[in-house]
Write a structure and sequence with these properties.
The protein is built from eight helices and five strands. It has helices at residues 27-36, 51-54, 60-73, 91-94, 100-109, 123-132, 145-151, 165-173; strands at residues 42-46, 80-84, 117-122, 135-143, 160-162. Helix 7 links the parallel strand 4 and strand 5. The longest helix is centred in the middle third of the chain and has 14 residues, at 60-73. The two termini are 18 Å apart.
Length: 174
């Protein structure tokens, strides 16, 4: 699932401190329930737009530690948080709508992308997930206006457009 706009509040200037890591409603419950069903949850974050100018990569460690702690408060667990830029991929490879972060997750965890759901919150992440061959749900808690407009003319469509992460969970697992 996408980090900003699906898991946490999508701030215009990004999540630059641990205090700005604010989860959206139902995230803890959904991740806990996915884990209970034996499903690994991997968060992808395309941070290439703002890290070089406002946040050093080392500053992500406390931010992601807080994200993990918030998830763990409810009993859930994240298998991983993969970000762009990434030490294993160039910015050109991993920045959405490129599929590098998806390919990295597939290699690292042996994930068949065609059987993997991705919860997207923005046009670029939705395009990357579709290009990677993932089953994709567009979650309206992100920056979805552009994505919804683009869907009108796109041959590739997400399986659904849903209001929030709980609706995405219900869509895939009933």
């Amino acid at each position: 699932m996408e980090r900003d706009g699906v898991v946490n509040v999508l701030w215009e200037e990004g999540v630059t401190t641990p205090e700005r890591m604010v989860l959206l409603p139902f995230v803890q419950e959904v991740i806990f329930n996915l884990n209970q069903k034996g499903i690994q949850v991997i968060v992808l974050a395309d941070l290439s737009d703002w890290i070089p100018g406002t946040l050093e990569p080392a500053a992500l460690e406390p931010i992601h530690a807080r994200l993990r702690a918030l998830i763990e408060e409810y009993g859930g667990r994240l298998a991983d948080i993969l970000v762009c830029p990434n030490s294993e991929l160039s910015v050109k490879e991993c920045r959405f709508p490129q599929t590098g972060l998806f390919q990295l997750a597939a290699r690292k965890y042996g994930i068949p992308l065609a059987d993997t759901y991705f919860f997207a919150g923005r046009l670029e992440s939705m395009q990357a997930a579709l290009a990677a061959g993932c089953r994709t749900l567009l979650v309206r808690t992100g920056r979805t206006f552009e994505a919804i407009q683009a869907l009108r003319h796109s041959p590739k469509q997400p399986e659904a457009v849903v209001p929030d992460i709980l609706s995405a969970y219900a869509k895939i697992l009933g």
